[in-house]
Description:
By secondary structure, the protein is of the alpha+beta class. The chain has one domain (7-174): Jann2411-like fold (Orthogonal Bundle), CATH 1.10.3300. The chain has six helices and six strands, in the order αββαααββαββα. It has helices at 7-16, 33-44, 53-67, 77-80, 105-120, 152-174, and strands at residues 21-22, 25-26, 84-89, 94-99, 125-127, 137-139. The strands form three sheets. The chain has a two-stranded antiparallel ribbon with strand order 1-2. It has a two-stranded antiparallel ribbon with strand order 3-4. Strand 3 and strand 4 form a beta hairpin. The chain starts with 6 loop residues before the first helix and ends with a helix. It binds zinc ion (ZN). Zinc ion binds next to helix 6. It comes from Actinoallomurus iriomotensis. Residues 124-168 form the Zinc finger CGNR domain. InterPro entries: ABATE, ABATE_dom_sf, Znf_CGNR. This is Zinc finger CGNR domain-containing protein. It holds the Pfam family zf-CGNR.
Amino acid sequence: MIKVMTPDEGLLLALLNTTPTVAGEVTDRLADPEEAYAWIEEHAGEGHLEEDLELLRSTRDTLQALVHGEAAPTALAPALDGVSYQAVIGDTGINWELATPRAHTLAARAVVAWDALQHTAPGRLRSCENTDECTLFLIDHSKSNSARWCSMAGCGNRMKARRHYERRKNAQTAD
Ligand SMILES: [Zn+2]
């Protein structure tokens, strides 16, 4: 069964996946400010135009390095500067809402989502196994924790086709 992603888990994954490999080259969807703001609008809605792009990019880089085991969580400190939880009293009780400086709302939300995953689903956030061609990440919510590809339709099929080809090639060599 696939659990519905919380909005910020989706944001985290989308942020991690802003450096896809296209035609053999690693690209960066946040490199060009115009494209970056289009990405922000698409994934977080309007109203985030004050987001500090440089901080968002460096937070993304740190999160990617963390997933690869190549960074320490202390490197996330800039994204959490001035971030706190605020009690908001509603009709049914108290809600705790993340309060962030306007300049790094998205960076902070992604970091908080990453931290939550560390506790609720350790090891479930990882990179696509098609490392030769793909720089995307996945969050595995399957019961068996056996997802290996960013998408079955993309890398899953490509890897299956390649294994099939290699098996045939090996079978022919053996003849
Ligand atoms: Zn992939």
